[in-house]
Write a structure and sequence with these properties.
The complex is a heterodimer of chains A (808) and B (564). Chain A is α/β, with parallel strands linked by helices and 808 residues long. Chain A is built from 26 helices and 36 strands. Chain A is 32% helix and 19% strand. Chain A is elongated, with a radius of gyration of 35 Å. Chain A starts with a strand and ends in a 12-residue tail after the last helix. Helix content of chain B is 41%, strand content 13%. Chain B has a three-stranded antiparallel β-sheet with strand order 1-2-3. In chain B, strands 10-11-12 form a three-stranded antiparallel β-sheet. In chain B, strand 10 and strand 11 form a beta hairpin. The two termini of chain B are 42 Å apart. The chains are: A alpha/beta (808), B alpha+beta (564). Chains A and B meet through helix 15, helix 16, strand 29, helix 17 and strand 32 of A and helix 1, helix 4, helix 7, helix 8 and strand 4 of B.
């Protein structure tokens, strides 16, 4: 798909990169009327004071994106799907307009040498070169005007600077008088600067394309350089004919224009539903996300305005603005709460006790917390704001897109000995979303001394602390289980003693080491694993057998270390298991009903076997009432704290669901229509994987990390082939070619005899079976990926390499 | 006369999904019984159309308990169809695994699946350990782990467990039932061995894994032989295997056999009353050639407890029918020709079986039209009446030491006695099989596979693998057409024993054995379980389907049980 983006700013780049990230095969073209590749307008000030050149504020663009510069688009031909510039035509499948806006001026300044707007790299250059020794007149008190004023203040170029304010405020009409006074004071510390309120240009003298003097209501300024920062208009003239427009190009909530192949985002777009036009970078990137997802058919999410965190990029003070999308400056019910202290102003605007906006100068309040307060939209007590200055211990918020604070950044920099902005990338996305704070971060990196050796030490310390904290959590959990069944007398304190009486002290320790290693836990965990084991019997377990062969139960009772007797007596409270339990019929049913009733939400359900759905589930009936296996499963699963499907049949039907699946068998997850079932496939499952999973659940209150098939990664993350004892022979090309041949006697690779180890994601080669006695590859037979589920029985359960199967 | 129906479902401590319903009269005596398999999977349908070399890995999943005998029978059926004779070493390795399975299976069955019908775990807590030590010595001069200190620790272990309030598997058992006969000391000795047996069965599975890769569901067989040649040639592996078996032999000699003698004595009244006595028809196919050319088990047919008239076993006299099973009714026919369509008539609305109609997924196999009991009891009786030099010495010794007569074995307690003796026979002969294997290797016979070229084998054929397995006779039948499996059928031991009634009204062996049993408390039907468990039911094996016509799901045959 060929996607053309018109525009040369941050939105255009964000769009292009996002498209290629989500759909790498797309063809993306950016058409821009500038001479430079897209750069970050936010940092134009840096060009004015020449602290940066345009190359250094150029935005990072995916290498696959094509770029056409110097192309001013004049019109859109929506029928033929192409756009035209004065000397070229570009065809598109989808078009995205991100042309942003153009600055307003109070009179035409085209061709005038000492007047400029402030919107582009060219403007910056003109200002930087033009203001030397001049009396600068800056018109406009919005963010652009103030940021530029701050920039000019840092440079000795200008002779004097006059800021003209048509009314009596700075930044926004909502800013409190105290804050305005504070800002004015800060700026006017520079004797060259004067802020004139209630003033405007009333006349000017122009000759030789140069403004000789400017007359305002209050004064006359000779030899001026005039800069307009008075506002912007969407830049959409080229689109007015082809698309429905109002102030901006009208779009729906998915950013689609009246032509569904054309999208528009950012300052050029106006939402049809609310009339909203984006102004902040964050809003633009959100719109870009929505447009890309809709265009690629990925999601149908719509653009919703979020609480914004904004501020001024100024060096002389900190300025932050957090605002709710539902904030209406004209609402008469708005109330302002002002807290000032020295050169600090915290201004809260509340409406019916709900926080709507916060503007802070030199504040150190945790902005993310304020953002959450606004998002919650719940009544707050003004006293709370007074008494709680909501200090952020993490310093100022540097990156509002990624919510990264100064202290956190310094931490990352020190911990990883980072010396450049590029070096930061693996650790945080800060500075890379809207780019607004990139310069701040670069400065922070430069200002933070680092030492590689120290960083390493710090990292080690940090890891140790994290481990300690995690263990503390596990201990708390084990403590919690202690409280669940106070009748149980086994505790960590008497565990040693208990083990002695079972004559299994050393064996137990061996087992703990083994299971700790198998679960990929640090050896430091052995102590807590031991404690965890002592609590395993606090979890009531129901083991249901459905359409099965009892193979998993058989495997389980052959479990080793601890041997099964201790396991069932001490470590696992296997309360219901048809193969082993004493009671039958009514007696066993009563046990089951009692667990469901009295241990609701606490018991773990283990299911073995497939669930036949054919014949209304009547291929399997259990219990005196003749309940179907499916109904029983649903009833027991409902109140279970967790459901574990053991064996390949419970995973996806396994051999019972192999072609032609005579009984319509499915796995547990499918039968229940749930996505939170833990799968432990295998035919049968290795018992160590059951015990490990239960242990993990107990210790961490959650199941181990799962893969996309809900299998614990620690058990199913590695390929049999990669850890196979015969792998060396595979690499050397030494293969068994006939059963019982010389290669077979020497233990060569079984791949040519149809071993499916390369297709099996299991830990058999590491833990083996029957107390590590052997496994199918050791027995010279090879693996058939029994844990892959029914596909194993349809495609892998044979002695031929896959490629040789004609139907595959 | 008012009759009450008692439903037991699930029957626990068995493999699979079995329901038993009994009807009792006003004296709580069972007057009629129904045994019903409640799960149908259709493994045979799945096997159809596959490459014959591949049947083993799927057929073994008929049962996770008897897994390796189904594995072997299915591979053997294919070898039979292709007339492939496997090397001696392969035969021996298969026998080592099968025999080890017999021993393991019998131990698990008795201690973990059945003994709680005889043993009251709560009474064991009142035992006097010193007395228990002396008591056990009546049954063996050196009982297995019988020190007073050890028994104390077992008692303590059980005690802390019971007191902890979480009985786990032992909750809601039949504790305190009036038909329990053991003294507290006898109960304690049994519970001691219950726990030891958990370890022993686990050790045997290690022995099996040495040659089979893993268990359950081993992977070491291929059409033509076995794959575990490297293990066979590793003296350490052979040694490990024998060390485990030696330890097991100790357990059988000093725990299992003495414990069974204890049951025989304590439950003498039950034997006397003939509780659990069935039809008296016994069927054996025999098998397992020993190094001296003798067969380990002898084949034969006995009817009506007539031990003087043994007929030769003839597989062609086996028929199956389904008049009371959930398949369309057809006249009885050979398993090869069974042609049945599932015809599920459901349960009654209250969830009970439709006792006048069809009521089970298990079909009814018959021999010359008669219902037959298979399993250790059939094999041990047959060994005695046919004077097997292998079996008879063991049986004679046990009968003389326990005072049992041959007819006594045909009871619930007797089945257990036969099973224990059989475990001992199998365990002892493992040593013979092993020395045979070592002899072969010593003389450089390292062959484990018979070479054949698959493309040159006949594309149309049929074959059978028929074996004695722990629970009785297991038969796998395969038909091959155009190089693919065109029909597959299994008749397993539990199919015989858990058979439902047939068109003539003959009850299956479980059902027949239940008639006349008196229940002391119909709400706690322990007596029924004692009878049913004595057969060692294995229902996963019992229900199977056969499709002879190539119509999916249109023909089912049930087989039964397996065992091991």
């Amino acid at each position: 798909m060929r996607i053309v983006i018109v525009g040369g700013g941050i939105s255009a780049v964000y769009l292009a990169n996002t498209i290629l990230k989500k759909s790498p095969t797309s063809e993306v073209l950016i058409v821009s009327d500038e001479t430079h590749p897209p750069y970050d307008r936010i940092h134009l000030c840096a060009l004015v004071n020449k602290s940066q050149c345009v190359e250094s504020i150029t935005l990072e663009l995916h290498p696959k994106v094509r770029l056409e510069l110097n192309q001013t688009i004049l019109s859109i031909d929506g029928t033929a799907k192409r756009i035209l510039s004065s000397h070229a035509v570009f065809a598109y499948d989808k078009l995205i307009i991100a042309t942003g806006s153009e600055p307003k001026t109070l009179f035409n300044i085209e061709g005038i040498s000492n007047a400029s707007t402030f919107r582009s790299e060219k403007d910056s250059e003109k200002i930087a070169d033009g203001i030397v020794g001049k009396n600068v007149v800056l018109v406009g008190v919005g963010p652009i005007g103030l940021e530029l004023l701050d920039t000019l203040m840092q440079s000795p170029s200008a002779k004097s600077i006059t800021l003209l304010a048509r009314k009596e405020y700075l930044y926004s009409q909502d800013l409190s008088r105290e804050a305005i006074a504070l800002l004015r004071g800060i700026f006017e510390q520079d004797p060259r600067i004067r802020i004139e309120f209630n003033d405007e240009i009333i006349d000017k003298t122009i000759s030789d394309n140069t403004i000789k003097s400017i007359q305002t209501r209050h004064r006359i300024i000779e030899d001026p350089f005039l800069i307009f920062g008075v506002g912007i208009d969407p830049r959409i003239d080229f689109a007015r004919q082809a698309l429905e427009c109002d102030k901006g190009i009208l779009v729906d909530d998915n950013m689609r224009t009246s032509n569904l192949d054309i999208y528009c985002v950012g300052e050029a777009a106006q939402l049809r539903s609310s009339g909203f036009i984006a102004g902040r970078v964050k809003e633009c990137t959100l719109q870009a996300e929505v447009a890309v997802d809709t265009l690629l058919g990925l999601e149908t999410k719509q653009f919703v305005q979020e609480v914004s965190i904004d501020g001024l990029k100024v060096g002389s003070f900190l300025f932050a603005d957090v605002s709710s999308p539902s904030y209406n400056p004209k609402d008469p019910d708005n109330e302002t709460i002002l807290i000032t202290h020295e050169n600090r102003v915290d201004q809260y605007i509340v409406n019916h006790d709900r926080l709507k906006r916060f503007i802070g100068i030199n504040t150190n309040i945790d902005l993310i917390h304020l953002k959450r307060l606004i998002e919650m939209d719940k009544p707050i007590d003004a006293a709370y704001l007074y008494s709680n200055r909501l200090h952020s211990g993490k310093g100022r918020l540097v990156c509002s897109c990624e919510s990264v604070y100064e202290a956190e950044l310094v931490d990352i920099i020190k911990l990883n000995a980072i010396t450049s902005f590029g070096g930061l990338k693996p650790y945080t996305e800060a500075g890379r979303v809207c780019g607004r704070c990139k310069q701040d971060i670069t400065a922070l990196i430069a200002a933070t001394p680092v030492d590689a050796a120290m960083a390493q030490q710090l990292r080690a310390q940090r890891e140790a602390d994290a481990k300690e904290a995690e263990m503390a959590l596990v201990r708390a959990r084990i403590e919690k289980y202690n409280k669940i069944h106070p009748k149980n007398q086994l505790s960590f304190e008497n565990l040693e003693e208990a083990m002695e009486s079972f004559d299994m002290g050393s064996e137990f320790n061996k087992w703990v080491s083994m299971i700790t290693a198998t679960m990929n836990l640090h050896p430091g965990y052995e102590e807590v694993v031991k404690e965890g084991v002592s609590q395993l019997n606090k979890i009531p377990i129901i083991w249901l057998e459905l359409a099965d062969c009892s193979g998993n139960s058989e495997g389980f009772i052959k479990s080793s270390h601890p041997k099964i007797d201790d396991l069932i007596l001490k470590y696992i409270s296997l309360d219901y298991h048809e193969l082993l339990m004493a009671g039958s019929g009514d007696q066993s049913e009563t046990v089951l009903d009692n667990i469901i009733k009295y241990d609701a939400g606490k018991y773990v359900l283990i299911v073995e076997g497939a669930v036949p759905l054919g014949l209304d589930g009547k291929f399997l009936r259990i219990g005196t009432k003749g309940e179907t296996g499916h109904a029983l499963l649903q009833r027991v699963a409902q109140n279970a704290a967790a459901v574990i499907a053991v064996g390949s049949c419970a995973y996806d039907g396994g051999v019972v669901a192999a072609a032609p699946n005579p009984t319509g068998a499915v796995g547990v997850a499918e039968a229940l229509g749930r996505t939170d079932i833990i799968n432990l496939p295998g035919c049968p499952v290795n018992p160590i994987n059951i015990v490990g999973t239960l242990l993990h659940f107990m210790m961490f209150e959650e199941f181990p990390k799962l893969d996309e098939k809900n299998r614990p990664i620690w058990a199913y993350g590695a390929r049999v082939h990669d850890n196979c004892e015969r792998r060396g022979h595979f690499d050397l090309g030494e293969f068994v070619l006939e059963w019982g041949d010389e290669g077979a006697k020497k233990g060569w690779c079984l791949f040519m005899m149809g071993c499916k180890g390369p297709y099996a994601q299991m830990n058999c080669s590491q833990v083996k079976f029957n107390e590590g006695t052997s496994w199918p590859v050791q027995a010279g037979h090879g693996c058939f990926a029994c844990g892959a589920g029914k596909i194993a029985f349809d495609q892998y359960a044979n002695h031929r390499p896959l490629a040789k199967e004609p139907h595959e | 006369m008012s009759k009450n129906k008692i439903v037991i479902d699930p029957v626990t401590r068995i493999e699979g999904h079995l329901r038993i319903e009994v009807e009792v009269d006003e004296d709580n005596v069972v007057t009629e019984a129904w045994a019903s398999g409640q799960l149908f999977r259709g493994i045979e349908i799945i096997l159809k159309g596959r490459d014959p070399r591949d049947v083993g890995l799927i057929a073994q999943r008929i049962c996770g308990v008897c897994t390796n005998v189904h594995y072997r029978a299915s591979i053997s059926a294919v070898e039979d169809a292709y007339s492939i004779t496997i090397p001696q070493n392969a035969e021996i390795i298969r026998n080592l695994v099968t025999m080890a399975l017999f021993v393991q299976d019998h131990i698990i069955h008795y201690y973990h699946l059945h003994s709680l019908d005889f043993v009251d775990i709560t009474s064991a807590l009142e035992a006097d350990c010193a007395k228990a030590v002396t008591m056990a010595q009546q049954y063996h001069e050196n009982p297995y782990r019988n020190s007073e200190g050890h028994l104390e620790s077992v008692k303590e272990k059980l005690g802390s467990f019971v007191k902890a309030g979480r009985l786990g598997l032992f909750s809601n058992g039949y504790w305190g039932h009036e038909t329990y006969r053991f003294t507290p000391e006898e109960n304690l000795v049994h519970m001691n061995h219950y726990l030891e047996a958990l370890r022993i069965q686990h050790d045997i599975s290690k022995a099996i894994a040495i040659f089979a890769g893993k268990t359950p569901h081993p992977q070491n067989l291929v059409v033509g032989g076995v794959t575990s040649v490297a293990d066979m040639l590793n003296p350490q592996r052979l040694n490990d295997f024998m060390f485990i078996i030696k330890e097991v032999r100790e357990f059988l000699e000093r725990a299992y056999i003495p414990d069974i003698k204890m049951v025989v004595k304590a439950y003498a009244d039950s034997i006397e009353r003939g509780e659990g006595r069935g039809c008296g028809n016994f069927l054996c196919c025999g098998g397992y050639r020993l190094p001296n050319k003798e067969q380990l088990f002898v084949g034969g047919v006995i009817t009506g407890h007539d031990f003087d008239a043994v007929q030769a076993f003839d597989p062609s006299k086996i028929t199956e029918e389904a008049s009371r099973s959930w398949y369309e009714s057809n006249p009885p026919s050979s398993p090869y020709d069974q042609d049945s369509t599932p015809f599920y008539t459901d349960l009654n609305e209250d969830g009970t079986l439709k006792s006048e109609g069809k009521y089970s997924w298990v079909k009814a196999p018959r021999y010359e039209g008669k219902v037959m009991e298979v399993g250790p009891v059939a094999r041990m009786i047959m060994g005695v009446v046919k004077e097997s030099p292998v079996i008879k010495p063991y049986m004679d010794r046990f009968m003389s030491e326990s005072g049992m007569k041959l007819i006594d074995f045909s009871t619930s307690v007797g089945r257990n006695a036969a099973r224990a003796v059989e475990a001992q026979v199998c365990c002892d002969y493992l040593f013979d099989f092993m020395s045979d294997l070592i002899e072969n290797i010593k003389y450089y016979d390292e062959t484990t596979w018979t070479k054949y070229v698959f493309e040159e084998l006949p594309t149309t054929s049929k074959g059978a693998g028929i074996f004695e397995v722990p629970r009785g006779i297991l038969s796998h039948f395969v038909k091959i057409q155009e190089g693919k499996v065109s029909n597959y059928q299994v008749v397993a031991p539990t199919t015989w024993n858990a058979s439902p009634k047939d068109a003539t009204g003959q009850r299956g062996p479980y059902e027949e054995a239940l008639i006349g049993i008196k229940l002391s408390d119909p709400s706690r039907p322990l007596e029924v379980l004692r009878v049913v468990h004595s057969f060692d039911p294995c229902l996963a094996c019992a229900v199977h389907v056969i499709d002879t016509k190539g119509r999916e799901l249109s023909h089912y045959k049930i087989q039964t049980v397996c065992s091991v």
